[in-house]
Amino acid sequence: xxxxxxxxxxxxxxxxxxxxxxxxxxxxxxxxxxxxxxxxxxxxxxxxxxxxxxxxxxxxxxxxxxxxxxxxxxxxxxxxxxxx
Length: 84
Known about the structure:
- By secondary structure, the protein is α+β, with helices and mostly antiparallel strands.
- The protein is built from five helices and three strands; from the N terminus they run H-H-H-E-H-E-H-E.
- The protein has a three-stranded antiparallel sheet with strand order 1-3-2.
């Protein structure tokens, strides 16, 4: 999974990254679906500006994914689905 721009367009939150984290129910469903179909996810240290990290979405994400590679404190983390 690469990029969050399609989710901002679909949810109607526009091209502004900061507005993507407030996408609401539609945005949460889109992210859940995206994560459910992903084998790998790269999250930058700015992911909270683009992804509406609710406690439920965090639990949904961390259940199948574990860190695979880290690019320092400012770079980000590549997550890999368990069993991949």
